[in-house]
User: Fold these one by one.
Assistant:
Number 1:
Amino acid sequence: MRKIDVFDTTLRDGEQTPGVNLNSIEKLEIAKQLERLGVDIMEAGFPASSKGDFEAVKKIAQTVKGCSVTGLARANEKDIDWAWEALKDSAEPRIHVFLATSPIHMTYKLKKTPDQVVETAVNAVKYAKQRFPQVQWSAEDACRSDRKFLVEIVTKVIDAGATVINLPDTVGYRSPEEIGHLFRYMMENVPNIDKVKLSTHCHDDLGMAVSNSLAAIENGALQIEGTINGIGERAGNASIEEVAVALKIRNDHYKAETGLKLDEIKRTSNLVSKLSGMAVPANKAVVGANAFAHESGIHQDGVLKEKTTYEIITPELIGVYSNRLVLGKLSGRHAFKQKVQELGFDLSDTKLNEAFQSFKDLADKKKEVTDEDLFVMLTDKQTESAEAEKYELKSIQVQYGTENIPTATIVATSPDGSRIQEAATGSGSVEAIYNTLERMVDGDLQLQDYRLSSVGRGRDALAEVFVKVTYEGVESSGRGTAQDVLEASARAYLNAVNRVYINGFQKKFKRTANV
Ligand SMILES: CC(=O)SCCNC(=O)CCNC(=O)[C@H](O)C(C)(C)COP(=O)(O)OP(=O)(O)OC[C@H]1O[C@@H](n2cnc3c(N)ncnc32)[C@H](O)[C@@H]1OP(=O)(O)O
Ligand SMILES: CC(C)C(=O)C(=O)O
């Protein structure tokens, strides 16, 4: 059985999803879960792209030791230097340098001749190799590049010291058959190909990213790149969980496997969905809510008689278990701690105590606290930053009636610790709340997007609100959960503002009175 390395780029290409904006605490939380999932390499970010991303990559490289951590760099010395500073403390420093090789990209974007592109790529790989033992080089837009040129540049880049060669389908253009041919062609025509691993990185513009990745594996790729839940630039990347489960279920056909702990898939998917704000469609393969649901009579009859009539994947394979321990208001600390561990959380004693108190408060309001409720609550607890200066909601009151103007009154504490109280009206309750918060918060705050969903089922389900805002020109997103939709809305708005603070903008927004 061939072992296929999994290169996860949820924290780099996944974060290029329009509207997704992860702070360093959230990136670290996802990184720790990717380590638990067993990825071989995680691309933690693009260190030269911003100070925030540099810090996040550095923190992940210092923390995660169970797999290789890498970062993206353009083919220039400055980007490679930044990547080294961020990654030098990782267990096995590895860089990912890229340069486009297709005529369209070389002519219009890079404005370089093919010879200049070869020279730039070779120099960059040689420069990177002076520090990094592992150097991956990607021929961006490889799948729309001239094959003979690709053979030439890949051969020279391998001679310069690259250890992995990635041939991305950057714009998701190719069919599985074409990708298969390209990989086979490179395997047969690059003279020094045995010195490197070939990698595949497919985008989903035409819905073929997973099939294309599998075709590349069938034709020589030993590394697959993708993201959890398939998030990423435009239509996204190949879903890692789909490729890994396809290799497992069809190992008779592919004769290849990954080293992933497949029963960590569902938890990883939930975490990425929650922190990125990108909901998983119910009908998504492997991790969608309906992936194991049987609706019609003939199917139900078949499954009752013999599961395999309609089920090729068992829920347990990806870590979906029936609720073994039901928690409610009469549950105690031991059961709670056990459940927290079962859900994969590792909380300090202080956070565990705080979480237990929040759980008890929730259990007083809800008949049964489900795994989904706990997952949301514990993720919030794990990713909240105690040190950061922030706005904190203390109380909220909303008056609504069909004959009245909706009015909200809110009490909060500001980042400098002072108590603030405001009231405002709006055309609806949520608008009244947001008008009030905009009065309370220093600086220009504007709502860009608002989404409401319920956590789990039932009339007492928790409300989850996801917002996108601009705060003093900075784009941010926020989440809030509560039993009540209006409270969740207020929490989400303040969370978006606090994330701007956590990311280091606090100095700019100090109240004038405190300057
Ligand atoms: C296929 C992919 O997913 S590639 C990764 C995409 N990810 C990102 O872009 C991350 C976020 N990006 C950023 O923060 C910024 O674009 C930065 C910091 C990287 C660069 O910002 P700026 O210096 O302002 O440049 P800008 O983004 O406007 O233009 C990109 C420049 O890099 C050049 N460039 C693009 N790719 C490469 C490369 N692989 N190697 C070297 N130069 C490159 C472009 O030709 C352009 O150069 P020019 O200014 O001489 O015309
Ligand atoms: C940087 C490369 C690997 C990339 O993301 C792409 O080509 O899609």
Note: Residues 507 and 515 are 9 Å apart (CA to CA).
Number 2:
Amino acid sequence: MEKELICPVYKKCNGCQLMNMPYEQQLSWKQNKVERCLSQFCNVKKIIGMDSPYNYRNKVQTVYRTTKGGRIISGVFQSSNNGIVGVEHCLLNSKRSDKIAIAVKTVLKNLNIPIYNPKTDKGFFKNILVRTAQNTGEILLTVVTAKGKFPKEKEFVKGVLKLFPKITTIVHNINPNPTKMKLGSYEKVLYGKGTIMDVLCGCKFEISPKSFYQVNSLQTEVLYKTAIKFAQLNKDDVVLDAYCGIGTIGLVASKYVKSVVGVEVNPQAVEDAKKNKELNKKSNINFYCKDAGEFMTEMADEEVTSPNVVFVDPPRAGCSREFLDSLCELSPDKIVYVSCNPETLERDLHYLTTKDYSVTKIQPVDMFPHTNHIETVCLLSR
Ligand SMILES: C[S@@+](CC[C@H](N)C(=O)[O-])C[C@H]1O[C@@H](n2cnc3c(N)ncnc32)[C@H](O)[C@@H]1O
């Protein structure tokens, strides 16, 4: 194990809630938490940690502000007070992202581009989102501004590329909301193709600025391989990938099975998923843009071939009751539940085990070292 590092601003930033513990202790803390929530269902396997738990984030947001003295600072957004904690080198971020954030700051200063001030709602440049594809090296820089007209747009793009030529695409996004860090609806590609491609588990994935993509690529492969192994797929299986994002789990599964259907509510992610189907030359997979609960209800009502294996990977809130009811009605032989929140996972497992299911495997995977977030894969069998 390499030397443990401590970030000088971790208390102020509060992004790394467990940084006061050595990594081995963090893993025990997570293991205990999963066991507290889930050992009532079945034995919890030992959490799979990282060999090097630093610089793993492939998606990094950096906010810019101007000090009273007129100096531009960059750092992490604090939703509690709409302020920022100045950080130039985060121990979790990919090193390239931090270097790009500094390069952008230099260009903003050189071109005198006004930085947005949320207190006065004046200014222009708010934040950036850098996505790096771990396995192809492609880099997507999204620049977020409060207003539409980009002063010195061409000079900005040229300046950033000169300092960081490895950026493969730059997108301009407008978010006029003074308090939210989310991306706005308007987007314009300033350079390159507007998306990046990454490779995971032997499949290619095209990723747009707004699509969900797991932030820790190395551990995502561990997570997906665990999920696929739990499912014990075979060539007659009909699979549903619920909350499929850009189609990652479904596409990885598609090479082992008869057919796959993916459902996802974010239109940009579904567009990416459809492109990914083409990119990987898969004809046995289809994607639908819909609320997963509604989709499942319709599927349960229709006379269609029911899936016998369902992958479920919802956001932190877990699955809706509508979704779980329809899932039980469709009655697949196996459910592989991938969760980023042990509490909602516990709630949903309670529900499913009062129906026809029992939990037979539980594997935590550490996707977010130094934070209190925990990812878990569970297998349920009917
Ligand atoms: C944790 S991500 C998982 C995505 C994908 N399985 C992956 O590993 O990249 C959850 C996904 O659920 C989608 N989502 C959220 N609410 C949804 C809903 N009600 N119906 C369908 N998809 C939803 C989000 O847009 C997001 O892409």
Note: The chain has a mean pLDDT of 94.
